[in-house]
Amino acid sequence: KADDNISSATYIINFSVKLSDVDYLLDIQSSGASLAGFASDKYEYTVELPVGETNLPIVTWVPGDEFQTVDTLSINKDKWNTEVRFNVKSQSGLSNVYKVNYQTLKSSDATLKAILVDETPIEGFEPNVFDYVVELPVGTTEFPEVSYEGADDYQVVNKLVANEKLNIFNVTAEDGTTNTYKVEFTVKLSENVELSSIELDGIPLRDFEPTKLEYTYVLENGVESHPVVNPIPMDDYQKIEVDDSGVFGDYKIYVTAQNGNRQVYVIHFGVEKSKDATLTDILADGESIPNYDSEI
To answer: Contacts from 26-31 at CB under 8 Å and sequence distance 24+?
Structure first.
């Protein structure tokens, strides 16, 4: 008010409080540990989680100041990727978005833990050996069941039975890695070239032994044919062929095993020579001599 007590003037002072422009975070922590390489001006991060992990770690942050607001949002992109967003807004209205992409690692294991034949593990199985040959006993006609044990719960195994002797397992890991196992059955071929017996007119050959290959059989004088020879095989897989040279020759029996092995049994037939050096009669002019005696 002026001295004249009439004139006056009013002064107004307006105070304003500066609003914070801090739109950044000081830290982001995952399970209590700062994100690797965190910087306030770096806005995207990737964190790898172990194979099979389905739960996100606890995520926390340190604000840039007490005036900003931070909203979080989780976005599930797929079963392996989840994005966590931090929407930071300063007091003055400036904003930034931090993104942390959590990636669950995919298993790359495309091996099997075991392959089983009739529930018994294949002998010598190794996860990184993919081809197996299993020899079955001689005469096998029904083939075993083949099964497997996977290395983890994330792989897919397709079993293909190409035929009764060949089983194929296609293994696909979670990350797409593939391997193929093959199990092939072979049936052992018999190597047996021995006979179990040789019969002559239905009677076993005297002194026969499977490992004895030569025999001598003497027929009575005057016999014109030898007995009927019947070779008795040791197993059902042998092939038997014969070569008959008659009563004064060799009777050969060729035994061929299933695997091609071969051996020969030989019976040497012969006719007993006569020891009679006497005459049954003496004739004179066509008439028997009276009182002839071969012993005299």
So the answer is: 26/62, 26/63, 26/64, 27/61, 27/62, 28/59, 28/60, 28/61, 28/62, 28/86, 28/98, 28/100, 29/59, 29/60, 29/61, 29/62, 30/57, 30/58, 30/59, 30/100, 31/57, 31/58
